[in-house]
Amino acid sequence: MVYFDPKFSTSYSSLILQIVIDTISICVAISESYHLCMFERRRQKMRWL
């Protein structure tokens, strides 16, 4: 059996949770800016037509 200090495991899991949340928010921000860029490009094409 590996003994885990409860305080250590709690801080470790919260750290992992924070990293996961940060990664998800970064991915969401990237995808949103990408969609916005594509939308803007499409709108400019429409303007040229």
From TrEMBL:
The chain crosses the membrane at residues 15-37. The keyword Membrane applies. Keywords: Membrane, Transmembrane, Transmembrane helix. This is Uncharacterized protein.
